[in-house]
Queue: 4 jobs
Job 1
Amino acid sequence: MQKPAPSYDEEKRLVALRQLGLLDTPPEERFERIINLAVLIFKVPISYISLVEADRQWFKAARGLDFRETARDISFCQYPILTLQPLVVPDALLDERFKSNPLVLNPPKVRFYAGMPIILKEGLPVATLCLMDVEPRTLSHEEMEILRELSHIVRREFELGEALTRLR
């Protein structure tokens, strides 16, 4: 299955991502708290905030993963970034895009994925707020709204951090 074409300028997106000043930085309590809330609310073993670069995704905050980044080409998160839409994969083994993905076939053996794009006010998607489970599942309409609200909190934290950086 082919990936959709981005509906934005990828170079502008990457510049905006780098201007946030978050890549390859230490963990921050403000993002860790959001991830912890997601784990508690959705009762999933894995949640993370993924900053999606040209060739990799790097996790600003993560719970339930033993690694801090993956190649973009195996990333579930590239799809919400490309489409500017949330992505829910109820069972990755039944999805043509992911059934042979190393994250599905090997640990953490992902079956369920939900990712909400984090889109800056300029309309540029820079990250995703994600949930993963080792069991197939779905999200209700209410749960999707909660995930959307949490993603808005992440976006606001990105913007506040960027504003503070400019003031310095």
Note: Strands lie at 46-52, 56-63, 69-71, 87-89, 112-119, 125-133.
Job 2
Amino acid sequence: MADYGLPVLYALFIWWFSTGLILYLDGLPRWTFRWSMAAATVVLVLALVALTKTRTDVSIAGAYCSFTCGLMVWGWHEIAFLLGYVTGPYRRPCPPECRGVRRLMLAIATILYHELAILVTAIAMLALTWEAPNQVGTWTFLVLWWMRLSAKLNVFLGVRNLNEEFLPDHLRYLETFFTRRPMNLLFPVSVTVATVVAVWLVWRAGAADADPFTVTGLTFLATLVILATIEHWFLVAPLPATALWRWGLRSRGSAPRVEIDIVAGFLGAGKTTFVRRTLAGEGTGVRTVALVNDFSAVGVDGALLRGGGAADVVELGDGCLCCSLKGDLASQIRAIVARAAPDRLVIEPSGVADVPALIGAFGNPALKPLVERVHLYAVIDAAAFLRDYARMPGYFRDQAALTPVFVVNKTDLASETEVAAVTETLRTLNPAAPVVAARYGAVAPGARAALSGAAALPVTPPPRAGDHHCA
């Protein structure tokens, strides 16, 4: 039994330990990545040299050495991808309207360089060991590649457990290419083929005419295929895969928390001007990123904020933030926090946004650890509000029920009677929210305390009378 038991235990240990080590290195500060990558490259070169030296060694030790070299070569590709050095030309979230072949092509573009590097390495390993009696390392690499491709396709097509916990923050955009569903049609084919291959390898390793080298090599390969098959089952079964490598994930620590300011308002209310004025009056002590939702072809809102130098601006021009991006809002914010490390994120949704739905999206478990608190500011057009309210009362009632403070802008374009009527209507909609007057997006110095003292919102909105979506 030792002929089989020792290779199985060795394969289990090196698979578990190497995976945890890569996760641990990936969770360290970004400045350590170049050193980790340099060390991994040295190991890669040594592994390829050792693979060449042992290609004619058909002893048990030769099988162990070749298998270990194959895993080391594969580990280089894993760490190069997870550290972000070898990924693909497309490094952004999948556009929410993207479907079918277009989504597949973008998904391929996120990993293209990684897959090409694996292909080149596989060709090199085949050339180094061609017609040599010891090809355990080459087959180890090919088996890992085959099963990893299968796992990627299943995650793309849809499985229950996406294991997004393993993704570092700088690769969070990959989540937008994952699909969560109970199962897909490829999954049973994947596990069936893998199971058949594993059974065949076990049968060949147990053949009476198998020499010790063959027994050891086939046992290594069978163990890897069985482990990969179990990993596939982790994708659909309620099994805690992360518990196996909890020690490797500890290096990531807790994610930085960010303040969220949502500046909402109907079309033309002056949201961008208000944001720009508010940011300009804050000084430079707070690092801010503005997430702008602009439907225009030229990105007017983003250009205004960027031109003022008030904040780093991320424009989202394709679709409404609250509707189209609801699924990957967590990915967007995680990517921004990882890249820019802001103290505050100002979100300016489109004028037709379903604000309660947007606030409710912050109840996503993936976002809760990132968010310190959420504030909402409703910017009102004094000259147009009464007309808009008469046309869309439900929209304004839902928004007003959540709003801690109203900013009545463009008071210079409305009469005192109109401003008084707007103020009275808003107080009727939400008696607890103060009403602050503004001109050109700027509030009076004495009224700024009402803005800074606005209460933080719960991340789950209260029940609404209606379900009003974007118009």
Note: The longest helix spans residues 100-128.
Job 3
Amino acid sequence: MPQQNTQPIATSARPSRVPVLIVDGYGISLTVHHGHLTIKDGIGTTRRERRLTRSQRSVRRILILARTGHISLDAIRWCSDTGINLSQVDPEVGPILHGVSRVNDDARLRRAQAAAGTSDIGLAITKFLLIEKLKGQADICEQHLHAVSTRDRIRALTVQLQDAEDLQACRSVEAVAGHAYFASWASIVECRFATLDICKVPERWRMFSKRSSPRHVGDKSPARAADPINAMLNYGYALAEIECRVALLALGLDPGLGIVHTDKPNRDSLALDVIEPIRPVVDAHILRLLDTRVFRASVFHETRQGTCRLLPPLTHEIAAHLTDYARVAAPIAEKIAHTLARSSPHTVKLRTPLTETRRLNEHIPMPTPITPLPKPLGPFPTCRDCSTPLRDRRRHVCDACCNATRRRLAKERADVAEHALRMIRQAPEELIPDDDNWTAETYMVEVFPGLQQVQLSAMMAATSLSKSACSRIRSGKQMPPRRQWETLLGLLGPGTH
């Protein structure tokens, strides 16, 4: 039986200021104690306890990444009353739990949703979603991948998508654009590992090859990622799917009745429809992360089946973008709900509980993108000495210039040391008193006044003392060892006594 952790659990009475609160570890618990939501999570000695009050408005999402633990009914009701969405994501299964604090229930809206799959309303919604997706992919090809030819091809397919006559034609155009889009990732997008960890990871983990899984012929689903880049994309899409489902439920729509995606058991097809325009936003976040981070092998794990999984703290870092995906999903879900409400023969009230605005767009597709993509990082920096492109944005010089600078500094230190030794050898013999007359008073009179004009580098080279010790000796705060007195006297040179 494992030993129970006896160390005290750290408590925090103040609510977190992070809009997404992540619960991870083993044996987690969410309970209500004296009107506060008490959250206990962590592993071993890193257990922690956090408390949220009903009046706090900073935390809007609680994301559970743990597999073991319990949640009380009081905690679920507490989150519902305070407007906090409670969700759970399993790294192997995907989204499991979705908690929605507000639901607008109207059967007439769901009836119009069910009829949209075979009507012109469904075709208009499909074009709206896929056109926004293709626009986002084209912007990523231009800003992040610098693939101009792929950008032009996707934009041409966007025009072709506007003229599609049925849903199958729309799906075909989107599939061609997706193939060209991820083909531009190959041999460009790289997952960089620390130098000490390169030998610990497979070679196929370092570069993006394709979106499908290479595990075996009968199992090529991208959901079973075999490399870190695809695993990060899958994890980001799973987080975005949570926000899409929460948005649809808050508007009174059925997440399982899809339009672009066909109905299948155990799948939220409409949530997958809404996620299509959000995929480029997720891609942009992952590309920025790959461009600015050097990863350790310990944040990834390969299962016995060859599937790559993400581990903390990387999962927490990606989950911090959960509220960004919620802001993007809100206007999309409301646009779909309003379009379906107008198509109903009955009067369905148009609600905006997500964006909290009454200004509605009248036509589909929307004339402007829903949200701007993250600002690109721009071109890679160059070496300030030789203008060689640098892969690491944190560096200012290349390896060759860095090694040349090191050799130059080493030669300068050697020259200083040689000069100091030459000055000692050339010191007149009459300036060096006999051992019997060499006292502290003689040192303070003959040597110390002249040290103010001697450089610290020369003192360090001659005496082999540290820079701080030489500085204290020159300022008079420290008396040098007696064996160094003659050496310091030799540094003064003739004419300084």
Note: The radius of gyration is 33 Å.
Job 4
Amino acid sequence: MHLYSAASARPLAAALAGVFEAALPDPLTPEWVAVPSDGMRRWLSLELAGRLGASAPGAGDGIASNIVRAYPGDLRSAVLAIDRPTDQADPWRIERMVWPVLEAIVDADAAALPTGLKVLESQREGASLYAKGRRIADLFDRYHLYRPHMVRQWARDRLVDGTGRALDEHSVWQARLWRRVRERIDEPSPPERLPAVLRRLHAGDQLLDLPPRLVLFGFTLLPAGAFLDLARAVAASREVHVFMLEPTHLDPEPLLGANPRPEDGSVRLRSSDATASLAHHPLLRSWGRLHRETALQLADVQADGVPVRLVGDAGPPPLPSTLLGRLQHDLRANRPPAATLADDPGDDSVQFHACFGATRQVEVLRDALLHLLARPGSDLTEDDVVVLCPALDRFAPLIEAAFGRSAPATTTPPPDATSVSVTASSPGRHGAPALR
């Protein structure tokens, strides 16, 4: 198993290209690359195509082909499939689990609903029962990924939460409904099966239907469950390369000192997490909790003898002159900001726009993007623009009205083009919504 860390994606892509330059024994064997989002997949494909097989360094005339593009959940599915016949579908997949969920909700005998499931009887006018079942199935699937210890306790009829404490009364219906779904499926759930499967992999079981080299690229966060345990088990028989994007790299020893691994194998509690004291920049303390939790998982792996290679860290870069550059520099160095930046009226690297109403926000966003793209000497393109939106369902109609529909693909833009094409997308199944 190989771990890589960098503060930006381009050095990681260069390191991955270096890994791919070592050809596999069979030239027809595909490379397997899992990414967190479609946007990262497209960007990485272009980066690799510009590097692999190029006529000269930086020529950009290479090619990237025979790559199996996947998501991290595909690795978990492939691992869980080793103890299942190839012609038998997994009933715990979301699209199949939704039907036992609906059966558990729509019980012919209303009196048979146990206490705590009465909340499912209420239905808003015009709401879809299938949509409710689908949301619950998606919730259970996320529990399987992020809270496997809790689900294994539910399978033993212990109604506890992710910390091992008894469930609150308003949440106990989830465990009881999951138990009813488990009875209908009549097959161990993924968290129940996973420990035995991992033991088989550690013992050298070669039943995985995967290439000999696997790559997980561009992740900023890792599930707090057994994801790295799964990757290490797969690494018993295959090369596994994990490329992590970290705003700053935290040393493993202070992290483990501030939040050591529980000796009983239970999960770490956020209430006992003292790693915030290791983040000297206030944004790393307030916004960086999930990053620190992922760094703790990497620290556990490093403590077991797997080093992390820092990519693109050739010494401290020169101090940038812009406000955005200084902010990025301080975050990467984990250093508190200093009030030494001179006021520069020409520095517009960070801008704030105050607007009245959602419609006006979108209009100002459109004008700001048009100015950036039309600025003389600017090499920005639409692929460089990411708009973070906390309420995509609310703003999507306004964006379409203000920006217009996406223009048809053309090789040469019209000379009078005055609009920017923005399409709604999501960076990953468990990520925050975004507009690209």
Note: The first strand starts at residue 2 and ends at 6.
